[in-house]
Inverse folding.
């Protein structure tokens, strides 16, 4: 059980009409809930309070090729009501015209702290000109880049664009911009750790992994041996997972009877001791 309040670095907000058919149908198929569950603003507020979440990161996502569009205005409005306890990550789709300009407008209008990009969902190579235009806009605005650089469930997704190693060039070219990788780059946690060891501006959240015991165990062992646990943060991936239950599962990783255990202190440090100023530029 979580012993005190904690920060959730990976929560989604959306309305059903924002999702598109692929996200809605695959959520029903995989977890029995359309779109992976309700994530309207009232439900988000209720669950965060019930789970003991003190602060949270809210995420919007736009994926033109599957009809998903969470408006940055929607994310910004919720941020405005929760500025004392939240940071917000909007989204643009680099495959669409004017994405960099849309990002500039959204950040200036709504005070967003980061932008969510997903090469394997949105269908772009991380080194493409269109992507680099968005990266340059983020660097100019002083916000961080959040990547879904991990496997995807959409049948027509692009796993060939999902390797964390593809972000090494981005981390090198934008040394003053922080990169946050969602889901610890699963299932490529080894690549993610190597990327973090090489680049001090790369961070990762562990969202979705606490219930994947073997992946989470191996990822944490790799992070311990790579001395990068100080740049790991906890996330639930709400509404796919309840934050309290995800935190319980995460803490339980330290209770596994393994020859190389995960120290409880490491897990608690990640869960309880990660403030947003770790990656948010002041």
């Amino acid at each position: 059980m979580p012993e005190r309040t904690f920060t959730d670095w990976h929560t989604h907000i959306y309305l059903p009409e924002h999702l598109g058919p692929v996200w809605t149908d695959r959520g029903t198929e995989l977890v029995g809930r359309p779109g992976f569950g309700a994530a309207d603003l009232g439900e988000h507020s209720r669950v965060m309070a019930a789970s003991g979440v003190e602060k949270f990161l809210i995420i919007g996502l736009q994926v033109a090729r599957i009809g998903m569009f969470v408006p940055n205005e929607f994310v910004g409005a919720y941020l405005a009501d929760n500025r004392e306890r939240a940071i917000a990550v909007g989204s643009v789709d680099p495959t669409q015209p004017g994405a960099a300009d849309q990002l500039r407008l959204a950040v200036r209008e709504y005070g967003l702290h980061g932008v969510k990009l997903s090469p394997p969902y949105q269908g772009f190579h991380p080194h493409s000109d269109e992507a680099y235009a968005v990266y340059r806009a983020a660097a100019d605005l002083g916000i961080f880049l959040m990547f879904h650089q991990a496997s995807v469930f959409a049948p027509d997704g692009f796993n060939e664009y999902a390797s964390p190693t593809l972000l090494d060039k981005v981390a090198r070219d934008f040394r003053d911009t922080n990169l946050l990788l969602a889901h610890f780059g699963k299932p490529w946690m080894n690549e993610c750790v190597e990327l973090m060891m090489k680049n001090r501006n790369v961070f990762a959240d562990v969202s979705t992994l606490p219930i994947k015991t073997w992946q989470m165990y191996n990822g944490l062992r790799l992070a311990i041996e790579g001395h990068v646990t100080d740049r790991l943060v906890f996330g639930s991936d709400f509404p796919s997972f309840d934050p309290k239950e995800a935190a319980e599962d995460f803490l339980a990783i330290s209770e596994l009877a393994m020859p190389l255990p995960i120290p409880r202190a490491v897990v608690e440090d990640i869960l309880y001791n990660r403030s947003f100023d770790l990656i948010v530029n002041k």
